[in-house]
Protein: Beta sliding clamp
Amino acid sequence: MQFVINRDRFVHSVQHVSKAVSSRTTIPILTGIKIVATKEGVTLTGSDSDISIESFIPTEENDKVLVEVLEEGSIVLQAKYFAEIVKKLPEGQIELSVQDQFATTIRSGSAVFNLNGLDPEEYPRLPQVEEHHVFRLPQDLLKNIIRQTGFAVSTQETRPVLTGVNLTVENEELICTATDSHRLAMRKAKIETNNTELHFENVVIPGKSLSELSKVLEETDQLIDVVVTESQVLFRLNNLLFFSRLLDGKYPVTKNMIPTHSKTEFKIKTKPFLQTLERALLLSREGKNNVINLKTLEEGEIEITSITPEIGKVTEKIKSSDLSGEDLRISFNGKNVIDALKVVDSEEIHIVFTGAMSPFVVRPTEHDLALHLFSPVRTY
Amino acid sequence: MQFVINRDRFVHSVQHVSKAVSSRTTIPILTGIKIVATKEGVTLTGSDSDISIESFIPTEENDKVLVEVLEEGSIVLQAKYFAEIVKKLPEGQIELSVQDQFATTIRSGSAVFNLNGLDPEEYPRLPQVEEHHVFRLPQDLLKNIIRQTGFAVSTQETRPVLTGVNLTVENEELICTATDSHRLAMRKAKIETNNTELHFENVVIPGKSLSELSKVLEETDQLIDVVVTESQVLFRLNNLLFFSRLLDGKYPVTKNMIPTHSKTEFKIKTKPFLQTLERALLLSREGKNNVINLKTLEEGEIEITSITPEIGKVTEKIKSSDLSGEDLRISFNGKNVIDALKVVDSEEIHIVFTGAMSPFVVRPTEHDLALHLFSPVRTY
Structure:
């Protein structure tokens, strides 16, 4: 194998596929990045067997030569060293060549690296996905959906299926749901599909996969293909394939958890409310339960308090609008509500309570595509 | 005690004095920040008994009212909470008042924090320094000197005196020296003083103190006073006092360590040489000794190599100028040389070797105010 490649583009691709490489893998070959050169260009692959990322660099793009392949072939190089080396190479062009016994030479300017490569035949093949369930949505929208739901997945392995985000598609609408059983985040979005009958549920993508995917997604409305199979999901962008395994197990039916009645409700400006809660959180951390108390007062005022007995307490009053229903005192995990308010894309929210001991719902007032559900905390 | 204070200025001062507060202190009162209000303004103090920082906010500055003191007094508040609280307060003004039993109220807008304060009488007094040994230098120059020497202090407690930077003053010149016994960094600077006879040596300031001091220094040529006593040093800026204890023990005499003869020497451009070494370091880390090899070639070329047997090796040739003396092969700790080249403020350096097993010296070619000394590494 021998090729000369544009350094910046190579670095970019190596950084992408490196995101899938774990140094803690038990499969030695997976500590490497696979490099394949063909007449069409160079393909890089990284994988930790949960996530696999493949990035392709074509020989030409927009009339610019990116790669000149002098000899086809393949090699696997240690990701840890390889990624750092390409970043630090001095010139705009890199020459990579493989000799006998996987001995690999990387040249750029006057720098010459001789690396011991690994046998590319040992590298596992990427999953083959059948393209029955395919839909498309803009890249920036997907990035936003991940931001608005991914934070709510469970970090505990007691119920593994809750460490993922559940995807449901019906009536050309995607519904993403994440819950750790104390809070729930839901986000809907319109999708594009050739099959208007496309329908599936219980497709659970590990939260970790989505947070890695989010790092390679860009702020553009270019469409991304999502291909769903029995055990894998594939996100296909321009020259990039991102595979993730799906989580086994039955995701809980969350539809029925969302209360439809109201005992107390109000609207409030998102940002001032978030800042009030952040101040209250300063004195609610000691017991590690982040308890913040909310109380409705006269004339639409809301009182937020928290206390750490040894240190002190904080009290703040904030104006709501359209306050109606019964008087309310409720305590909740302030950190959970803050997490949600940080990702709400609406200047105002609508909060509906169903009693001091029952879940409450936060919705944006500007659209009905998102919902956050919280369990209260018993404080006695 | 009761005062109303400009929030931004208060936050700025609290952040400064917080740098001296350690959460791991064995003296409970030192987990707090002392606040004293007088007719002149508000003084904040933080200390971990090694470092003490005092910041003063005058009632007025440049015709702008900063503090309105309604009642004089003092209090100590838990630094951890207090610093976070003032940062997050909603309005431009903060009211702080102390009631009975050190109960303290902080108000800003609609936010009210009630904190349990500590007895200010328990707070230790700052050291009293006699101002016999005083000199002045620009703030930005001091910041630069710290950057150019502080990295070379020892991080090991086996010889505590080497964890500090040694200050010597003679003939209105300051000489700062740091060494961990494998490398040495020295920086000289002209100082201003009213006593042209000012002379001292063996004043050793802990490296940690200097790195904290560096964070409060700004990029301005405003002069800073340095007051040296038997056991303390005081840095006095506009409205800020920074005290540090000095390290006990005899600092080694480093003057005689610096070789005066030369067996091989050359000049080389700092940045390309630094980048070459950084590439070589990529393959010299495995053994944790960071060994890089240097070899002189024909026609002023220098060859830099490093090797990690399991991974591979790197070779790079780089042009030097004015190469003279014997042929040389030498190995050294590449990380140490890289640390020094990063702080050299000269486009070109002059390296003088005294043999493969003897120390070598790096000097800027543009001035003679700095010097770096390195021991070679035996590789056989």
In short: Chain A has three domains: 2-122, 133-255, 260-374.
